[in-house]
Amino acid sequence: MIVNLEEFLRSHSIYFELYNHDPIYTNEDAVIMKAEKGFAGTETKALFLKGKSEQYYSFVTFTTKRTDFKRLKQVVGEKVAVVKQEEMETITGQKAGAVTPLGYENTIPIIVDEELFEQEKLVFAPARPDQTMVILAKDLKKIIDLLGNELFSYNEEG
């Protein structure tokens, strides 16, 4: 189950911008839509992962970064892989290309690329391919804490 982020952020008086647009499923489409709508911020991607223990995770990083799965294993303590599309749709109701990094039930830990905290604004899909949300990077940890998800910090060093 996924929380309605718009309602959640509004109820906690957390700044956000929400843009409605044609559905986006690729990074190329996102760049075009960003230019059309004029929103600013660092583009992020979210990967819905599953560990050997059957634990699910949400991993948020830059759209331009390759994921180091060996490093992720060190961070969470188990080998993880991207969940197959059918399983992700069953568990979260989301389609590939529009995966939200936030808003999951609190049993799903969130893994955040530490460099995202250094950005000004973060851009992501709020579980819908026809919307884009922008939040202040400084609010990311607060949002995760309020949602009650365990937070793991990811960096490329060991």
Automatic annotation (TrEMBL):
Q: Which GO terms describe its molecular function?
A: aminoacyl-tRNA deacylase activity
Q: Which Pfam families match?
A: tRNA_edit
Keywords associated with the record: Protein biosynthesis
Limits of the YbaK/aminoacyl-tRNA synthetase-associated domain: 39-142
GO BP annotations of the record are: translation
Question: Does the keyword Protein biosynthesis belong to this entry?
Answer: yes
InterPro entries per record:
ProX/PRXD1, YbaK/aa-tRNA-synt-asso_dom_sf, YbaK/aa-tRNA-synth-assoc-dom
Presence of the UniProt keyword Protein biosynthesis in the record: yes
* Family from the record: Belongs to the PRORSD1 family.
Q: What is this protein called?
A: Ala-tRNA(Pro) deacylase
Which species is this record about? Carnobacterium iners
